[in-house]
Specification:
Distance between the termini: 21 Å
Strand content: 35-45%
Structural class: mainly beta
Low-confidence stretches: none
CATH superfamily: Trypsin-like serine proteases
Number of helices: 1
Number of domains: 1
Protein name: Peptidase S1 domain-containing protein
Radius of gyration: 16 Å
Largest sheet: 6 strands, antiparallel, barrel
CATH class: Mainly Beta
Mean pLDDT: 78
Number of strands: 10
Organism: Umbra pygmaea (Eastern mudminnow)
Strand order of the largest sheet: 1-2-5-10-8-7
CATH architecture: Beta Barrel
CATH topology: Thrombin, subunit H
Length: 142
Amino acid sequence: MLLKLDDNAVHPYATLPSTNNCVKPKNSQIIRFAGLKISTINQNTKKEEINDSDKLLCGELDVTDCNLDYNIGNNFYNHLMIICGKRKDVDACQGDSGGGMLDNANVLHGVLVTIGSKVCQSPVHFMDICSYRTWISKITNN
């Protein structure tokens, strides 16, 4: 996903974890992520409504266990490749995929993936960067 930012926008750069010491965030560690979908409950119908936002939305989650193996189409993702985050009233929706998962030092640890058929879900699932860190270095000559 590419975003066009205003010239005067100031955002810290995300860095990749070290190739030699790439580790998943620990359970209960606070992580941040971003997306463009809003999930709200319609007070009249009591049904969930999904809307687009005109602003990039940020959320905080606490890393939690992913106790499942995931089979998506022809791809199989085990719990070693997925990082989960959860917090009350925070979810991710279809359309948020591709957003980064960062720690407080702006180190990128994961990329948001949609797993399952729900429109919105919690816990939020991220593909672990460490599973691909060596490949990323090779491709980017970094």
